[in-house]
Amino acid sequence: MLETVFYFPWEVNLILFIQHSFPGFMFKFFEIIAELVSKNVLALLFISIYLVYNKEWGRFTLLSLGIAGVCCEFIKVTVGRLRPYAVVDNIKCIHANVAGQDPLNFKIQGYSLPSGHTMMATNLFMAIPIYLKKMPYALLGFIGVLIVALSRFGLGVHFPTDTMVGFIIALAIILILSHIYDKVDRTYLYLGITALSLVGIIFNPVMAYIKYVALASGISLGFLVEEKYVNFENPKSRRDAIVRLIGAIILFVLLFILIPKLAGNGDIVSCIKYSLCTFIMLAIYPMTFKKIDRDG
After folding, report:
1. Which of 295, 35, 34, 23 is nearest to 157 (CA)?
2. pLDDT at 114 (0 to 100)
3. What is the rounded distance in angstroms from the CA atom of residue 105 to the CA atom of residue 122?
4. Given pLDDT bands bounded at 50, 70 and 90, which one contains residue 17?
5. H-type alpha helices, the chain
6. pTM for the complete prediction?
7. 207: exposed, middle or buried (C-beta count within 10 Å: 0-12, 13-18, 19+)?
8. CA–CA separation, 236 vs 190, rounded Å?
9. What is residue 81's DSSP assignment?
10. Which residues, in sequence order, are bridge partners of residue 292?
11. Among candidates 245, 271, 273, 280, which has minimal Cα distance to 259?
12. CB contact at 8 A, 106 and 77
């Protein structure tokens, strides 16, 4: 696989300034951010919004997250930009992208451009405000994105330009999706996302990208089946919301953590986790709501 090295001098200077000037507790804070703004945490959060609070908000955030994930990973494996600590001697890897693994094993750690954490943070803090056209809240959310971006190059795992590109990709997808979301036939939208993601495998037949295709396909096809055959409603009471949430957390831990761990967490297991397990959460679990909701 092609690996590239390129950066601007100001990026190195900024990273070194942060690593040499910031107090130690700031890097502990950055490490906490790295663990919280992760695929599993955001997936559970957005799925919970979809199932428990507001179906449309959850659906929009999950779609934008899935599309942005596919786009970011396609660029990552195409460009193959090495991480800062791998190419600049004085930059430390304070907290690896995948903790506990060899920081120089980029099959595990992934490449640098763009920043997936910044992409996910943009979806976390800005997707719903932009969808609802609440621009003051979107600007407030941008502060959260900046903090996450700062943590990524402060930890030495990204160049500042990686975070910029991650933000731009996520923001562009959120803006485009918010414009077409209520105007196009959802069936064509879901099938189009799945088809375009699959086409990308022709150009990047690597497992790192295929996993994101599996995730985007699980999201899109899950929504397609749910809309046609389930079509659940938002909970009508606090009791129903709590019961749904408890069930969602138990199912999520079972499908996304325990079973993959017992099965070995290999590449095939990861693809099944991202596609089939996501599909179950979005389309199959809601079939039980008529039974568990008090007013079902």
Report:
1. 34
2. 96
3. 27
4. very high
5. 9-21, 24-36, 39-48, 55-79, 84-87, 106-109, 116-131, 135-154, 160-180, 186-203, 207-225, 238-253, 259-263, 267-272, 278-279, 289-292
6. 0.93
7. middle
8. 28
9. B
10. none
11. 273
12. no
